[in-house]
Amino acid sequence: MGKKKLLDEYELKARQLPAFILIAPIIITLYLWFPSLSTIGKVLGGLVSTLGITYLASKLIRDKGKRLQSSLIKEWGGALPSTLILRHRDSTLDSVTKKRYHKYLEHNVPGLKMPTKEEEENDPKSADDKYNSAIKWLLSNTRDTKKYNLIFKDNITFGFSRNLLSVKILGVIISLFSLLKDFILFLYKYNVHALKEVNINVYIAFTISIIFLYIWICLVNKRWVKSNGYAFARSLLETCDMK
Q: How many domains would you assign to the chain?
């Protein structure tokens, strides 16, 4: 798989998909309220694509995601999960597996000598530099997405969750706005005392707005991002047992 195709897949799933999810409540519910907009929507969709609005949104989300990641790294202990779990003082991996990974990396990464537990305690920054170097080497040697497909998918999932979290507040606002829009349109278009006359699309629109609001408030959170970060780290380090 070519590098451009890989970037396109990551761009689509980890950056542009969050941008779509961000605006989806309004777009989908407007269509449900006004099905006649479907033709106009196609025209507008082409215009949006031409102007590169979706592309711009994905770039903005990418930048916000990177800034958020820097903040998360501080909360997690000063490093990404892939580095954290190589630390002697981290208990994510059992000691036997960690020792095996250390031994493999020391043997294969040119010029690398993994720190002992005492060396890590005395100079944690130097130890992290060595762990980071080992992770960079692993990343550069696992770029074959056919052979290491799980790593690529877990990386996309981590990027997707991180980028979604970076625009959570905006997502909640847009979903609330969509729900408010549904309520106003309902009051304008229907008699509250004649619910039997309400089109099924209206109920679906309300449901979609509520679902998106629930997703943003309850599911998109730091715990979810951290879990995906550790899943990616495990997938990456497990390649030490594959070679």
A: 1
